[in-house]
């Protein structure tokens, strides 16, 4: 039962080009095109970085290696920011066009650009309940409209060896 979770954690830790998808994902100052305006909920603390990524909404491509997706001409976008010291947190990521996309949000608390199962937080569009394996692309997807589409993603942190969930406040 723990093997699928370890495979998922290893896959999200694969080295990637930190700049891949950033130019395409960066919203303009007054964004009017297809995009997601993501409100971040449940952040554990104000350290590290936040990394929001957009993927095709199918299980084969969801959380796949960014180098492979870009080389194949598939949708992939990334926005990465330092965690703001205070206040509400919103990130904007551009979509290739209106449609359905899978989104993941990583709270990289130590800023090492890798998902650490015991340290970092993770969340997805649709806020699926997390278990021992990655959610399906369908459960982690949202529809981008012709303009900015507001959604909220709740970060989940490991609570025990076999359980993830949002922080209890």
TrEMBL record:
InterPro entries: DUF2141. Pfam families: DUF2141. This is DUF2141 domain-containing protein.
């Amino acid at each position: 039962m723990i093997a699928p979770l370890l495979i998922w954690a290893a896959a999200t830790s694969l080295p990637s080009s930190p700049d891949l998808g950033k130019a395409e994902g960066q919203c303009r100052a007054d964004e009017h095109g297809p995009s997601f305006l993501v409100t971040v909920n449940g952040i554990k603390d104000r350290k590290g970085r936040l990394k929001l990524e957009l993927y095709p909404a199918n299980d084969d491509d969801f959380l796949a290696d960014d180098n492979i997706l870009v080389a194949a001409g598939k949708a992939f976008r990334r926005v990465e920011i330092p965690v703001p010291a205070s206040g509400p947190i919103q990130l904007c990521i551009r979509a290739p066009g209106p449609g359905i996309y899978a989104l993941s949000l990583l709270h990289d608390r130590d800023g090492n650009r890798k998902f650490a199962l015991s340290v970092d937080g993770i969340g997805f569009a649709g806020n699926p309940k997390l278990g021992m394996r990655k959610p399906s692309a369908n459960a982690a997807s949202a529809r981008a409209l012709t303009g900015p589409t507001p959604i909220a993603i709740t970060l989940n942190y490991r609570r025990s060896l076999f359980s993830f969930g949002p922080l209890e406040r």
